Fold each of these.
Amino acid sequence: AWRVHENSIAYCLLVFLRPPPGHSFSLELDTMGQLPARHSSIRVVLECMCSREQLLADTLCFLHHPNDKLLRDRSSSLLRTLCTRSYLDVEKIACWVQLLVRSAWLLLPQSHHCQLTVLPSSWSCRFQLTGTSKVNICTEMIFAVQQ
């Protein structure tokens, strides 16, 4: 979605997160067995990749090759970055995406003409671009998962 005001433009982007290979997302039901409406707990679950391993030979199964230290460390690092215990942590995801956007912004030629400001938010990523034209561009990235 987007909207235009006198000297500002606001964008709202819905960003769907996908689990890394060998993992899946599981939305936990509430105490009544129903899907919660908002701010639900999303568990990151280890999946068996044995059939893909046998067919394509492009990955090892995290579940059945627990002794492969390199893969386990890489998976653990990603989970520590984005999760608290075994659950997605939206605040950690927001911080991680903010770091990625800041780093990528510095590589763009526009970074010499516009200023990128990270705006405070714990449930999404909000950025403001201010350039020489005095038009403010505000972008909000909201995270979601798909079953």
Amino acid sequence: MADTVELLKAKIQEREDHLRESWVKAMEARLVQEELVKCHRYEGVNHLENCRWLVDKYIQMLQENRVKGYKKIEV
């Protein structure tokens, strides 16, 4: 009985850690988006050339840094 309680607590803690890391990555993508908006406003007409590296980084982060949750709880 005590082993199953410890295993359940460990599994829940692992899920919370995973969700926390997932949210941190999502917030990093939001920061890159804000920098991209600033770059577009600052560069004006030349934003396609000068902000391209931010666009590439943002697209990569959108593909990789999705918030992944759990659909069911295993008890």
Amino acid sequence: MGKGKSDDPKDVKRKENAKMQLKRNIGYFDGVSFIIGSIVGAGIFVSPTGVLKHSLLNIGVALTIWTASGLVSLMGSLCYAELGTALPFSGGEYSHIKRGLGSLPAFIFIWTSTFTKPASNAARALLFAEYAAQPFYGICPAPEALKKCLALAVLWSLGILNGCSVKMAAWVQTVFTLLKMMALSVIAVGGIVLLIGGRKESLARFEDAFSSEIPNASQVAEAFFQGLYAYGGWWSLNYMAEEMKNPSRNIPLTVMTAVPAVIVFYLLVNISYLTVLTPKEIVSSVAVAVTWADRVIPSVAWIIPLSVAVSIFGALNSSMFTLGRLSYAGSQSGHLPVLISMLNVHSCTPAPAMIFSTTIASIFIIPSDLITLTNYFGFSAWLMIGLTCASLIVLRYREPHLHRPYKVFLPVPFVMVAMSFFLVLAPIVWSPNLQYVYAFLFMLGSLIVYLPFIHFKLHFAFLDKITCHLQLLLEVSPADGSAEGKCE
């Protein structure tokens, strides 16, 4: 017998574990928790009014748009499932755009996301701080300094947690997703019980669902835009594809479980609101779920503000986890400093990437006015979704032999590309604003960095010394088998 390589599965697994790389610690239930946690934030509890308002209080049209928005989100997530199973790398849209459309569009994506996604996390942290602090101040507003300190504390707590242990971050995500779904279940079941109980005015409301004024095309489009915004976050799973156990099976299965579950819950919760409150009361309410609780469960109405805080915390944890993977993937491809793609030698987590993204989010919290500037980048999310689905189409024709464990029906990505570019252009055409020009110029400003540092590979030697010192300080090491070639 020669001294050949051992094919023993235990030896193979031991070698895999010894490698300095992200570990496949995220299973099916973790993936479902991350998707649901990313989609369900504070909106469904506080202000699910946009769809109803732009539907001109027409209940039938509003529920139809909630359903259609969910189905479009499901179509998009199935496109992402194909890309995630064929190219199971960290970075989500960034990795897919780089593989399908090239380095420059991918760099524009990560340049924009490096600012907009941390700003979104900062806004969530501030909202959590407001809900957590307000009960202690009664009718008086909580001090701004306190809210900012609490927001920074929760941001860095989650940043450290995600930088230390993937398993612990996934456990926290699962717990908080279960808690928020329990709260939604209380609202959904409460509404169903009341509806079955047969309140005449409630039943009449649904029997004549389409009887009120029908909105015009632009109003339906605006309501649709609001509905799609409520489902935002369905794309989060692809950011952690490199850490999914058995991605070929679990990515499509997770998507087909989580997104339909959210659609069903959103519909049931909206029906519950409409059973207890009139459309006018819903649109005029500051916090719809609180008003609902005051009517239905007044003795334990405090559960709803607590549920909102829990929901925001879970959404923030999921968002920070995915943002760390985006920074990690960008660094591996040479679009961000090399230190960011290094892994902690003890836990194999992208600790520098978590520190990087959490630091940027913290900068947005301190002068929180900066967050409002990023509101005009809303169109960029759908632009990147359109480019990702376009990458899928390009790869189908350019790399027909690429192994695809799951394949979406080809017309679906074409529909998603058309839908995406409509959603990019619609707000700019309907309500033109100079800020949109600034946002577009900021995205183009990425060329100022891309050309010298990425295209012409300009490099400063002193940065290597800084990287070396930080590497020793943080106890991090380059990942084995750099992913730079993965997305080429």
